[in-house]
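Weekly structure sync - notes
Attendees: PM, LS, DV (DV joined late)
Agenda: review two folding runs queued last week.

Item 1: First target. Sequence and structure tokens pasted below for the record.
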Amino acid sequence: MTGTGYSSGKPFGPHSDIDFFIESDQLVSGLPTSDKIPGMVKPRVLMEKFPALKEWSKQWTETLGRDVAPAGFAKDAVPSGPQIR
């Protein structure tokens, strides 16, 4: 966690979303990955393929009052720090 938004540089606060990374070969197998973050399956793709993740995201978004989104990575592919290029 960096404490600031990647593109805005603003400190995290009520406006910030929360991104969760799920590390699972089985979950991401055969799904397209992001052009910006190597090996990442975007939340939109995961939630289209797995409706339960979409419902989970919706419930936590409502509970926390900010967007909550799960992204997927293959085993050992989660970046060690911010990797948006």
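Item 2: Second target, run right after the first with the same settings.
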Amino acid sequence: MVASVTRQVCARALVDHLLHYYTAVIRPVLEYCCCVWHHNISYKLALQIENIQKRAMKIIFEHTRGMPYSSFLYCANLPSLHHRRDQQARKFFKSIFAPDSCLRSLLPALRDKNLIARLRAARTFPALASRTKRYQSFINFYLLHYQ
């Protein structure tokens, strides 16, 4: 009985160490500068990035073969990479709004508050026009989607 408890404790410690290593070393490489490129990534590339996390979860939780990916994420208490990229992009865009932000100059001029009250889509900043959706700037994308 003591041997089985010792094996379980050692296995849990190994899982915790591997999970910590993944979140500290591998995941930052997968998410590097994601606030800039997240909006412009293709579905195929997003799946390839997500597959790296799936493979890591299968290695870390090797005793749970055949388990769905969402269950792995629940056991590890991790969000999907797509969800994390979206959250980080929203957080970055909100940080641009800060009065002391050096990136605030990249945003267009604020709309008049009287005008905003009369508009159907009450956005603080006007949407910037771009020729194609594929190569638009991340600022244009965030102005359209995160206001």
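Discussion on item 2: The chain has seven helices and no strands.
Action: LS to circulate a short write-up before next sync.
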